[in-house]
């Protein structure tokens, strides 16, 4: 006879605070391969504790446990899981089937953790269920099966990896008498095939059907009686050779995802509420960053339309508010000519403006007149729409010509009549229209840039404005990298010419940088607000996973009993959290893009880029990983015996 299990002076003590309760007292026994053993005892006798130790679901406090001659008392959790996976099969009184899985999927669980391929798992599970007359119940869930059918499913699961030793804990306790007899007949048949059967029961009638009866009382063996010594060591040896031994991990990630989807579908409403937090968080990140980027690009485009390598020179009005007196006659056209001599200056465009009344036919319209020079369209990045712009000859001859802005054209010529060549009265002075500017739209301050007329600077100074000083000078530099040095040189030049610092220079590149920094800060703020939503969603993920672990403690115990290692349980629950986050992230991305499209239709500046979408989706994944880890770790650290005994 070959001894498969040998216990020597096994004791087990449970601690509850300072209180120590010894449940088993020096248990010693040997069980041979192929035996049919019944362990009987009343409640509190220690039989369930002994079963947990025999099945490597729990460790003894002291003593030696040898399995196939190997000391296993000091094995760690994963080594014990490997032993359970390749040696034991469990049949429980309450069946302990996974409620969300079909009969076939329940039977396949041990092979999943043994690393068997999907085809091998399916074929073996189907064959086992067919042999137990459950071939027409493969796709049925536990709640669609009778008690006897559920117990047969659990027997098939016990046999999935070979099940050299079958531990049956009160296998007939929840069954009617006929179903109970059928289960015991199955156990007898399995024993005759070489399986070592250990039945834990309080029923004398059930125990008497075994070949050997071990009786426990108060944690001690009080009787060990062999009625009939029958074993089949050759068959038992064959079972050992046929046992499934794989890589001892979940066969592939898709299997873990399937488990996760089944678990989430079982609590659909709660899952939807959890998804909502992720959806809002991810959608907010995508939509807010799109709106923020769009607003930034809109402002920067308007600044760029004025040129980013520009210097705008204006009188320093602060000097004239201090009570020094005098007229604000600071910038003059000659200053622009002096600035043009700088080697890094492409052009210098002086401007003077005034409000004027323009009349054509019986239409009067008040607008602004801008006296400027031929380089104006280049300086302002503003193209001619019709006709031509002011030229140098117009400047030299003080020609009474004008170029209309689009708004002025539409106002004075509402019927679509071409204004080119027509004369309009500007402050009652006739000016010939030689061109119309292209449409520019609203400026950075919201003003209508098309609501203006343009006239030669010389003509405007003499005939419209009655002054020689200019409002501003726009300078285009050749080398943008040297714009700061050029600004300092021009400022020094004007200070020498005016014998005081009565001008100020605005660097458009600096404004662009300031706007960019401000916009980035705004986007960061919007992103932070959206991240808070994502954080709330993450807390929801942690909540659902903690509740899931609590509700599925017994399922975790079953998985561990069938060979799942700690890392397998950890992986499964992390993947569940990732699946929730991935689904919520995908829906959130779609919702965020949809919100952005709607805002664009309503006229808001929107800019979609790949970065925020990828960032938001990655953050949802990271949220699932971070907030799913703690519940997953708690699940993986459960003791199998404790998990199985939970209600």
From TrEMBL:
The chain crosses the membrane at residues 268-291, 524-549, 569-594, 606-630. SUPFAM superfamilies: P-loop containing nucleoside triphosphate hydrolases. It comes from Phyllobacterium brassicacearum. PROSITE patterns: ABC_TRANSPORTER_1, ABC_TRANSPORTER_2. It is a multi-pass membrane protein. GO terms for molecular function: ATP binding; ATP hydrolysis activity; transmembrane transporter activity. Keywords: Antibiotic resistance, ATP-binding, Cell inner membrane, Cell membrane, Membrane, Nucleotide-binding, Translocase, Transmembrane, Transmembrane helix, Transport. Its main location: membrane. It is found in: Cell inner membrane. This is Pyoverdine export ATP-binding/permease protein PvdT. It holds the Pfam family FtsX. InterPro entries: AAA+_ATPase, ABC3_permease_C, ABC_transporter-like_ATP-bd, ABC_transporter-like_CS, MacB-like_ATP-bd, MacB_PCD, Macrolide_Exporter_MacB, P-loop_NTPase. GO terms for biological process: response to antibiotic.
